Structure formats: C-alpha cells, structure tokens
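Progress report, Aim 2. The chain analyzed during this reporting quarter is listed below.
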Amino acid sequence: MTDAKKGEGAGLRIHGIQTGRPNKLVGDTTWQKLTYDFNITDARREVELVCELRALKGEVWFDTESLKLVRLK
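Predicted structure tokens for the chain:
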C-alpha cells in the first residue's frame, strides 16, 4: 500500500527517518539517477540506506554496483 506522506514509487531513504522522502520515480522509465541528501549528526551512528518501491504493483531495479556515498562537507 502507498502512503503519500512517506513517499511513493521507487526511491531512497534512511532507515528510521519518519519524514517523507523527497525523491521518487513513478511509472515506466529508463535508468535514471536518483539521489538522497541526509545529515549525520553523530559520527558513531550506523546508517542504513533503504532502496524501496512503495506501490500497489510493479517492480524496481537498483544497480548496487553504482551506489555511491558522497560527503558534501
């Protein structure tokens, strides 16, 4: 089931974050770059990136070889 507050379609988020995710891919599409910006305030905190599909039906593919973590600060 979809929940528009949490995000719809294919997207990325951090496990445990309760706010909606700003990224989404919906419908049939070719490969596209998808990004997710987040802040870490505790350097000791373990972070789990979630690659998900929130939809009533369909499928999504994430290329695990292309996943990158880029430090902005």
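The radius of gyration is 13 Å. The chain has one domain: 1-66. These observations will guide the mutagenesis work planned for the next reporting period.
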